[in-house]
């Protein structure tokens, strides 16, 4: 069993906070392994994933009552593409607005690290 398989199994068993840490770990593993097949799968799912992030961004603008729904959309986006820095960044905004500043800082740090390791130009 490889590390990514173990992380995937753990995602099903973990609580919300642990899921976020595991998704971040999965992103790091995928980057480290430089998996071209994963990259192609992620590209195919990018439309759905972009819709999740766009919806979450809109919900963030609507205010506090929409934060749990925005978080849900962002978590779904991260399940599709754990290396997406925009999803991590927006998750940081949700946590900041909820008052979870340490969690927000962790998400912003993840977004920053992923942004640094992302290609200059997206696959089209």
Automatic annotation (TrEMBL):
This is Protein NPGR1.
